[in-house]
């Protein structure tokens, strides 16, 4: 079921983020609206993770303003975040999802059916009773996606969720991401993998040194980059 549009548009207006004397994000202005996956790319240190954390409301900007569906509060009503290296609770796979559902306010009597549905959705139904920390890296990432989906989000932020996975595990995660987007949930995801950009993205945000240098549909970005930095990045050159 498609979530009501309470979190979108997500709008960043002149947002900056500092770490001591270092500028991590510099005057970012960006609007995220319903539609296909938005992928955030750029060299290491460009500010991708910091941007996602601000969009989720995990951090606050040092300057500028962020609104979610016109609201300036940072309470994540229908938002979810999946980290590159998710932390698994010392419980079974099913109990990890149960905890997420409880935190999302789902009443006890409804949780068993939801656990089955969510684990089937990410291909972990047969591993429900396995300790979550005994799962492979790819299985743990799929469990992290199930926990995020337990929030019934309208928008999900994914921070390089396949960065340490092998090709088979990467494909499994990408399949879940695509199905999630097709269900009407907005995906905003960072990645270093340009092949992944081509496979998943509807549009691309290109970050360099904490600034948005380009925002365009994926085909335009890949085939007709508008900035020298984007062209160099696509060639595989170092962008500093």
How large is the count of helical segments?
8
| CATH class category name of the domain at 10-87 and 153-235 | Alpha Beta
* CATH H level, superfamily name of the domain at 10-87 and 153-235: P-loop containing nucleotide triphosphate hydrolases
The largest sheet, given as strand count, sense and whether it forms a barrel, is: 6 strands, mixed
CA(first)-CA(last) distance: 43 Å
Strand order of the largest sheet: 5-6-7-3-8-9
Strand content: 15-25%
- What sequence of helices (H) and strands (E) makes up the elements? EEEHEEHHHEHEHEEHH
CATH architecture of the domain at 10-87 and 153-235: 3-Layer(aba) Sandwich
Tell me the CATH topology of the domain at 10-87 and 153-235: Rossmann fold
Quaternary structure state of the chains depicted: single chain
Highlighted features:
single chain, 240 residues, alpha/beta, Rossmann fold, six-stranded mixed beta sheet, three-stranded antiparallel beta sheet, 8 helices, globular
Can you offer a commentary on this structure?
The chain is an alpha/beta fold and 240 residues long. The protein has a domain at 10-87 and 153-235: P-loop containing nucleotide triphosphate hydrolases (Rossmann fold). The chain contains eight helices and nine strands. It has helices at 48-56, 93-103, 108-121, 137-149, 167-182, 194-200, 218-223, 228-235; strands at 10-19, 22-32, 38-41, 63-68, 79-82, 155-159, 186-190, 203-208, 211-217. The strands form two sheets. A six-stranded mixed beta sheet has the order 5-6-7-3-8-9, sandwiched between helices. The chain has a three-stranded antiparallel beta sheet with strand order 2-1-4, with helices on one face. Helix 2 packs across helix 3 (108-121), helix 2 packs parallel to helix 4 (137-149) and helix 4 (137-149) packs parallel to helix 5 (167-182). The longest helix is centred in the C-terminal third of the chain and has 16 residues, at 167-182. 42% of the residues are buried. The mean pLDDT is 95.
């Amino acid at each position: 079921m498609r979530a009501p549009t309470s979190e979108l548009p997500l709008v960043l207006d002149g947002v900056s983020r500092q770490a001591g004397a270092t500028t991590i994000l510099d005057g970012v202005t960006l609007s995220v609206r319903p539609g296909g996956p938005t992928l955030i790319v750029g060299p290491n240190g460009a500010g991708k993770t910091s941007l996602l954390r601000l969009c989720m409301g995990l951090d606050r900007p040092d300057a500028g303003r962020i609104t979610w569906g016109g609201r300036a509060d940072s309470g994540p009503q229908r938002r979810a975040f999946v980290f590159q290296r998710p932390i698994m609770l010392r419980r079974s796979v099913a109990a990890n999802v149960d905890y997420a559902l409880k935190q999302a306010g789902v009443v006890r009597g409804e949780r068993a059916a939801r656990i089955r549905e969510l684990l089937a959705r990410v291909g972990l139904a047969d591993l429900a009773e396995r300790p979550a920390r005994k799962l492979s890296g790819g299985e743990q990432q799929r469990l992290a996606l199930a926990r995020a989906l337990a929030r019934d989000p309208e928008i999900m932020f994914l921070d390089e969720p396949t960065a340490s996975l092998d090709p088979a595990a990467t494909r499994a995660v990408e399949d879940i991401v695509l199905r999630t987007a097709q269900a009407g949930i907005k995906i905003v995801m960072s990645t270093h993998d340009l092949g992944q950009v081509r496979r998943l993205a509807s549009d691309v945000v290109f970050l360099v040194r904490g600034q948005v240098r380009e925002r365009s549909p994926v085909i335009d970005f890949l085939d007709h980059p508008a900035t020298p930095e984007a062209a160099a990045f696509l060639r595989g050159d170092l962008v500093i």
